[in-house]
Design goal:
71 residues, alpha+beta
């Protein structure tokens, strides 16, 4: 189902459709993309505050271009 299609409302007391565990690069990226697509997303991470420096040492080449394309 895409964000353009109508989704049924969430049950009473539920405020999220998707839960992502882990706020590293993949979890943060997934939460961002899904949120932009209109989903109610909750991101859970073991740290209460995001580190000042977000280090990802394995991004290069075509991965950088893919990240640019999704904004």
């Amino acid at each position: 189902m895409t964000a353009d299609q109508s989704r049924p409302p969430l049950p009473a007391g539920i405020d999220t459709e998707i839960v992502i565990v882990g706020g590293g690069l993949s979890g943060t990226l997934a939460a961002n993309v899904l949120g932009r697509a209109g989903y109610q997303v909750t991101l859970i991470d073991r740290y209460a505050v995001f580190p000042r420096e977000f280090r990802v040492e394995k991004i290069a080449g075509d991965q950088i271009e893919k990240l640019r394309r999704i904004g």
